[in-house]
Amino acid sequence: MGAADGGSGTGATGATGAIGGSGASGGGSGGVTPFTGEVTAQVLTTDTCSDTSGRMECYDFTFDAAGHMQSYAMRECSATTAYQCVVFDADPNGVPLATHFAQSCDGTPTTCFSYDVDAAAHSWSGERDDYCDGNVDALECRTYTLDANGLADTVAIDDGCDGVADTCETRVYDASGRWLTIERDRACDGSTDSCFRFIYQDE
Questions:
Q1: Do 31 and 149 touch, CB atoms closer than 8 A?
Q2: Rounded to two decimals, what is the model's pTM?
Q3: Read out DSSP for 97-116?
Q4: 124 burial class (0-12, 13-18, 19+ CB within 10 angstroms)?
Q5: Contact at 8 Å (CB) between 172 and 153?
Q6: CA–CA distance from 47 to each of 63, 186, 188, 191 (Å)?
Q7: Alpha carbon distance 86, 102 (integer Å)
Q8: What dihedral angle (degrees, nearest 10) is formed by the CA atoms of 23, 168, 179, 120?
Q9: What's 190's DSSP letter?
Q10: Separation CA 114–CA 19 (nearest Å)
Q11: pLDDT by residue (tens digit) across 85-110?
C-alpha cells in the first residue's frame, strides 16, 4: 500500500496521509475515547469501500498518552520486518509539525515534510524535502473539515499549492479516533479510486 500521504508512497497515510498525526487520528473530543500505546491493524486496499477483496498489509501503530498518532510501520502481514516507517512530530494538541519517512526503517529518514498549520482556517501548507537535505522539492497544501469529535473527516490535497485540489479524501473513525476507512478520490470528481479499511487487532 505504501505511504498514504503524497510523494513517498501510495498507501493510506504518507505524503497523502501525513495529516494522520494531526488530530486526524486520536486526541479528539466529544465521544472519542483516545487509544494509547501500540496496536497492529490489517489494512485492506480495494477499489471501492464496498469491495471485499484486495491487497492486505499490516500497519504497526503507536499512539501517545493523548491518543495522537506518533508513528507507524508498514509491512507484509506475513513478515516481521517493516518496509517503510513513518514518524510524526506534533505539538501537544496533535497538530503536525513534521513527518519523516524512512524507507529502510533504520532510523534515517529518506523523505521529510514540514508544516505550517492554520487551525482556525482548517488548512495547512507543507514542504517536502525528498532527501532530508534541507532543500524544498515540492509544496503541498490541504484544507479539511472536522466532524463532531474534532477529527478531519474530509481532506482536500493541493499538490503545488496552486489553489486547485488534486486529491480528496473522506475518513471515518472508530470510537478511539483511529481510522476505520479512508476513501480516496484522486481527481476530486466525486468518484472513488481506492479505499483503505483498517481492522485493528485489539478488536
A1: yes
A2: 0.87
A3: EEEEEETT-SS--SEEEEEE
A4: buried
A5: yes
A6: 28, 12, 15, 10
A7: 6
A8: 20
A9: S
A10: 11
A11: 999 998 877 777 999 999 999 989 99
